[in-house]
Amino acid sequence: MALLIAILGATLVLCICSALLRWNEVRYRKKGLPPGTMGWPVFGETTEFLKQGPNFMKNQRARYGSFFKSHILGCPTIVSMDPELNKYILMNETKGLVPGYPQSMLDILGKCNIAAVHGSTHKYMRGALLSLISPTMIRDQLLPKIDDFMGTHLSNWDKKIINIQEKTKEMAFLSALKQIASIESRSISQAFMPEFFKLVLGTLSLPIDLPGTNYRRGLQARKSIISILSQLLEDRRASSQETQQDMLGCLLRSEENRYKLTDEEIIDLIITILYSGYETVSTTSMMAVKYLHDHPKVLQELRKEHMAIREKKKPDDPINLDDLKAMRFTRAVIFETSRLATIVNGVLRKTTQDMELNGFLIPKGWRIYVYTREINYDLFQYPEPLSFNPWRWLEKSQESQSYSFIFGGGSRQCPGKELGIAEISTFLHYFVTRYRWEEVGGDKLMKFPRVEAPNGLHIRVSSY
Ligand code: HEM
Question: Which residues bind heme per the record (predicted)?
Fold first, then answer.
C-alpha cells in the first residue's frame, strides 16, 4: 500500500512538473520568437544557467542555434552568441536596444548613472566622464596619482603571505578614489571602502527590500556614500579647494568645464567611475598575477620590459606616459588575461519596443544577453585559444579586430579602457620589479558567473 502511495505521489509530482513546464512554454509561445526553452514559471532556467555556466549556453546553441530564447535571472531573455549580430545590437542603441541591467543595479547606482540614461542625457554624461579621463588628464593628473598610490600600496610585501584578490580589490577602489579626491582620499577611505563593498554586493542581488538582504544593505550603503560625497563637495566649496588637480576639481570648476552637472549628477558620476572600474581592474590584475605565476617565460619577458624602464630612471622617478607607451608587452599580457579568463562574459540590453531582430520578433521589454564569451575562444581569431599567449596581441590588427568585445562595443564601448590599462600596467610594474612570488596553493578559482577566488588567492612574496 505504502509503495502504491509513493508511486502515485511521484507520478502526481511528475505530472504537475511537466504541466508547469508546458504551461510556461505555451505562455511564451508568441509568433515569431526565436527557438529555445523557458524553464519553470518565475525561476525559468536560472539554476541550470548558473550551475552549468558556459556549458548551458553551448548546449542551447547546439540545439537552437546562436540566437535563442530563455528565461534567466528573472526575465524572459534572448541570448545572442552570433558575433555579427552582437555587433549590430551594440551599435544600434537608437533603434531601441538600451542597457538592460538588473533593477537592483539601477536602484543602487542612481538614476543619473550612465547605464540608466539614454539618448542625449547619455551623450552628456558620457561626455562629462570622457573629459575627466582624457589622454591629457591621464598624462598630467591621473597617472602621477596612480603611480604614487601603487608605489605605496605595493610596499612592505616582502616575506609576507598576501591575499592578492583582496589587495587588487583595495587597489582598484583606492587608486580610483585618489584620482577622484586626491587630498581627501586618505581621510575618507576608511569610512568609504566598506560602504562601497556593500554597494557592489547590493547591485548583484535580487531587489528584495527586506532587513538583512544584500539589496537593503546596498541601498543603505548608497545613502552613506551620498552623504560622504555631499560633505566632500560642501567642504571643497567652503575652502575654495575647487582648484585641486583631480576629477572632483575638474567637475567643480564649472566655468572651465563645458559640462555643467548638478550635485546629484556629480555624485552618480563618481559612483559610476568607482563601480565600473572596480571589478574589471581588480579581477584582471589578480588573474594577470595568476597567469604570470603559471607561465614563467611570459613573466621573464614582462620583467625584462619593466626592468628596462626602471634602469633609465632614478629610483624614485614615477612612471610617465612615455613609459606607459613603452609597455607593449604588458598591454598584450592585459589583453590576453582578459581574453583567456573572460572577465566580462557579455553585456545586457533590453528592447524599448517590439522589434524584428535576425528575422525574429522580439517583444518590448525583453532582455537581450549579448554573450561575447565564446568569441574569446574562437579558433580562427585566436589559434590555440586555450593557451596563454600574450605575443598574439603584439600584432596590431589583433586589438582592433571588430569582433573583440573585451571592452564592449558601439556607443557604450568602455570609456575607461586606457585608464584601466594604465592602472593595471602600473600595478604590474611595481609588482614584478619589486617582488617574486609563489602560490601558497589550495585556493579555488571560480570562472563563472564571475571570475573570483571564493576564499582568496594567497601568494608567498619575497623581494626580487
Ligand atoms: C580592464 C578594465 C576594464 C574592462 C575589461 C572594462 C569593460 C567594459 C565593458 C565590456 C563595457 C561595456 C558595457 C556595456 O556595453 O553595457 C564597459 C563600459 C563602461 N566602462 Fe569599462 N572596463 C574596464 C575599466 C574601466 C574603468 C577603469 C572605468 C573608469 C572610468 C570604466 C568605466 C566604464 C563606464 C562608465 C562604462 C559605461 C559606458 C557607457 O555606458 O557609455 N571601465 N567597460
Answer: 414
Question: Among 368, 412, 383, which Cα is nearest to 85's?
Answer: 368
Q: Which residues pair with 391 in a beta bridge?
A: none
pLDDT at residue 141 is higher than 70: yes
Distance in angstroms (rounded) separating the CA atoms of residues 220 and 208:
13
Residue nearest to atom 43 of ligand 1 (CA): 414
Residue written as cell 533593477? 103
Q: How far, in Å, CA of 104 to CA of 102, rounded?
A: 6
Cα separation, 83 vs 88, whole angstroms = 9
pTM for the full predicted model: 0.94
Tell me the per-residue pLDDT of 166-184, one tens digit each, with 9 for 90 and over. Answer: 999 999 999 999 999 999 9
Pair 253, 241: CB distance under 8 Å: no
Overall average pLDDT of the 69-86 stretch: 93
Q: Do 344 and 94 touch, CB atoms closer than 8 A?
A: no
Give how far Cα 322 sits from Cα of 138, 179, 194, 319, Å: 12, 20, 36, 8
- Which residues have CB under 6 Å of ligand 1? 99, 114-115, 126, 129, 133, 272-273, 276-277, 280-281, 284, 338, 343-344, 347, 406-408, 412, 414-416, 419-420
Q: What mean pLDDT is reported for the chain? A: 92
> What spacing in Å lies between the alpha carbon of 348 and ligand 1's midpoint?
13
Residue 70, SS3?
Answer: strand
**Which cell numbers hold the place of 67?**
540566437
Instruction: Give the torsion sign (CA, 170, 176, 179, 182).
Output: negative
CA 86 distance to own-chain centroid: 18
- Contact present, 411 and 93 (Cβ < 8 Å): yes
What structural domains does the chain harbor? 101-341+373-463 (1.10.630.10)
Q: Which grid coordinates are listed for 41?
A: 514559471
